[in-house]
Write a structure and sequence with these properties.
This protein has about 525 residues and is an alpha/beta fold. It has three domains: about 270 residues, no CATH class; about 150 residues; about 35 residues, no CATH class. The protein contains 15 helices and 21 strands. The strands form three sheets. It has an eleven-stranded parallel β-sheet with strand order 1-2-4-5-6-14-15-17-19-20-21, with helices on one face. An eight-stranded antiparallel β-sheet has the order 3-9-8-12-11-10-7-13. The longest helix has 18 residues. The chain is globular and about 80 Å long.
Length: about 525
């Protein structure tokens, strides 16, 4: 990709429009970010309207104290330019000349991959919180080899809470996918704290204040990741207003710089810190991403179904499509799969229409009003070889008190190998197959042609001020058209060995699970 972009950049008479026509997708996969060529690549990409951008930060940092800050500087420039829209800093103590540019193009789908190095992850999350907007955002974090795995995973959730869901975040995403990390009760707790404090490293014990700091152009700052290198730093090329934490004991201010993560400075006459009003630390918090309709979670592990429900209660209020997957081969406490109670899940995602599950067991403990009114239209389950899940699927089809009986139109179940099913599970599979092809509309028989003609004439006349259609309530109109609509048939697929993996419209990289790949 580097050679292609450099050739495009070197064309003497190439206009921005021509460049946009030539670059639609870009991949920076384990790029040598310490190379100065990376800056020129970012300049080219900033001028293009990209349908898809893939940035893989895995294995891009090493232990060399001379090259790692160079790589982090360039990564910060790439991230701040392509995500935030402009470069924010100049380098101090290096020969790197960072271009001062603003992004002219737009990125529709952004896919990000990280390894166990936390420095790049925090810088990217800081950039996302600054006001990024995407049609689709996918993040994969590979922390499998970490000795302090639990701590790293909890920190990931705190930064995700700040970047995507906190009150100070300006991030807007229609489709969000998060994969690679695990979810525990401690991770959920730090997620809540980060959301409430609007800061990725909440500290409820020390004498600290949270707020905003305005740092003028020309101030020198140093990211926390560079503290061991005294010869390098950054100088702001624009005034920045950043989320910050003030330590009353040391008088230091930690602030979040897009592209670089947490930096430290002193509060003085130039850099003004303004504390928050009294924070609301109540347990009743609801996180929100503007326009989020699809959420995909491919988790390495989950402590329990209760923890998963608690997370979705915070972030799932507006979600229409939900994918939950526990990575294949991982079993929960007591060597059992994570169990999700649909009567508890329904209140967490009340507007859900599509549910896709892999390596998850579902059941219904008790009926409630939200479950009865749950408008589920699509259910896909993979590796659903347990009787609880199959019985729940059957109940969604036959229990007349549930809205799903009338609206669940697509059901796909993969059961692994049929010969390994016990008699109860086999009987449930046969019962489910008996509901394939059922009609779901209010009227099982189609309207006569004459009645359809009358409906069409009424609709065609709806713009007339004298039309009675103007006075009919919207809910009544909905019922009329449902009654007049063509009867819909339920479709179902019951798969055995080697189930077809659902295409998740995710991006793919070699280390990702097999069911996640780029379309």
């Amino acid at each position: 990709m580097l050679l292609v972009l450099m050739k495009l950049w070197s064309k003497p008479r190439m206009s921005t429009t021509e460049l946009e026509l030539e670059i639609h997708s870009a991949y920076m996969d384990r790029t040598e970010f310490s190379s100065p060529d990376v800056l020129e690549v970012a300049v080219v990409l900033s001028r293009a309207d990209l349908t898809f951008l893939y940035l893989n930060f895995a294995d891009v940092l090493d232990s060399d104290q001379n090259t790692e800050p160079l790589a982090l500087t360039n990564i910060g420039f790439v991230v701040s330019t392509l995500i935030c829209g402009r470069s924010l800093c100049a380098s101090i103590g290096t020969d790197i000349e960072i271009p001062l540019i603003e992004r002219q193009g737009h990125v529709r789908k952004l896919c990000l991959a990280f390894d166990s190095s936390f420095h790049t992850f925090t810088g990217v999350c800081a950039a996302l919180a600054s006001g990024a907007s995407f049609g689709r955002l996918a993040l994969w974090v590979d922390v499998d080899e970490q000795a302090n795995l639990q701590v790293v995973q909890d920190e990931c959730w705190s930064w995700l809470a700040y970047a995507l869901w906190s009150k100070g975040s300006g991030c807007s995403v229609r489709e969000l996918a998060i994969g690679g990390i695990g979810l525990s009760r401690s991770g959920l707790s730090i997620f809540k704290a980060a959301f409430q404090q609007n800061y990725p490293e909440p500290d409820l014990m020390r004498n600290v204040e949270y707020g905003l700091i305005t740092i003028p152009e020309g101030v020198e700052v140093k990211p926390r990741a560079w503290m061991e290198n005294d010869s390098m730093g950054l100088m702001l090329t624009h005034e920045c207003r950043c989320r910050a934490r003030y330590n009353n004991a040391t008088k230091n201010v930690d602030f979040i710089l897009p592209g670089f993560g947490i930096c430290t400075t002193k509060a003085d006459n130039r850099s003004k810190f303004v504390p928050d009003a009294t924070a609301d630390l109540s347990d009743e918090v609801v996180a929100h991403i503007p326009n989020l309709g699809s959420l995909e979670l491919d988790l390495s592990q989950v402590e329990s179904g209760d923890v998963l429900d608690a997370l979705l209660k915070l972030i799932g209020g507006d979600v229409r499509s939900l994918t939950l997957s526990i990575q294949e081969g991982w079993l929960g406490v007591g060597n059992q799969r994570v169990k999700v109670d649909l009567s508890e899940l329904a209140p967490c995602v009340p507007h859900l229409e599509e549910l896709h599950l892999q390596n998850v067991t579902i059941f219904v403990a008790k009926h409630n009003e939200l479950l009865r009114r749950w408008g589920l239209k699509t259910l896909e389950m993979y590796e659903a070889d347990d009787a609880d899940s199959l019985d729940t699927c059957l109940r969604l089809l036959v229990d007349k008190t549930l809205r799903s009986t009338r609206e669940l139109s697509e059901l796909e179940i993969s059961v692994g190998q049929l010969e390994r099913l016990n008699p109860l599970a086999r009987g449930l599979m046969n019962a489910i197959s008996g509901h394939i092809g059922e009609f779901l509309s209010v009227a099982k028989d189609e309207f006569p042609s004459a009645s359809k003609a009358v409906m069409i004439s009424v609709v065609n006349d709806c713009h007339s001020p004298q039309s009675s259609l103007q006075y009919i309530d919207a809910s009544i109109l909905t019922l009329i058209f449902e009654f007049a609509a063509r009867a819909q048939q339920r479709s179902a697929w019951l798969l055995n060995s080697n189930p077809r993996k659902r295409k998740l419209h995710f991006c793919g990289w070699n280390s990702s699970p097999s069911f996640m790949y780029f379309e």
